[in-house]
Please model this.
Amino acid sequence: MPRQFFVGGNFKMNGVAESITSIVKNLNAAKLDSNTEVVISPPALYLTLTRELANSNIGVAAQNVYDKPNGAFTGEISVEQLRDTKIDWAVIGHSERRVILKETDEFIARKTKAAVEGGVSVIFCIGETLEEREANKTIEVVTRQLNAAAKELSKEQWAKVVIAYEPVWAIGTGKVATTEQAQEVHAAIRKWLSETISAEAADSVRIIYGGSVSEKNCRELATQPDVDGFLVGGASLKPAFVDIINARI
Ligand SMILES: O=C[C@H](O)COP(=O)(O)O
Model:
């Protein structure tokens, strides 16, 4: 079965009720490719508003979740709380959390496990910094990040994961990876899935690209055999997000 194209919109720490309402209403009214799975990720305070407003064919993701079920963890949100508020997805391991908030590979892997075990699907983000790319360490870095998750997840649990390859140097910089650069890393990730998880996972797990995706560059990126969609930051706040969702039509 072909992998369903997947486009995520990560609003990051942007928007208030009024602007988020307008983004969601715009998506509701737009003609979206029915073959593309769409998931939007507003700031935590607006998850319920977004879930209530968005059409049922649009998924909603938290931008983070904690690895413990409950307790004295000020400021954190549990998997159960996400499920309770009808949030079925979480973005985990975004480079902004890895770099700014110093989240480790192991912590990210534990959060991923907690999410999938609790019934929340995960957009699992990986990617190298500019320094790592220039030192030819891209594959080494993404493999290390993936191996940490593989230690926690059973082979079957990868069915609840979408892998987002986001080179840190391409995020919010306007410097998109070339189609060749994206395809090369995506193919290496698929090879890793095949060798480390299973042939079935290599066939079915979506690998999406993130980093300065726009309505201008999305179509060419979408032609690559191992690019199964996008994780979009800045452009997901704009009407052009609809064009990215429809990159394949
Ligand atoms: O989660 C999304 C990525 O960080 C990409 O952000 P960007 O599209 O603004 O470069």
In short: Residues 10, 94, 166, 171-172, 210-213, 231-235 surround glyceraldehyde-3-phosphate (CB under 6 Å). The longest helix spans residues 179-197. The CA atoms of residues 154 and 197 lie 9 Å apart.
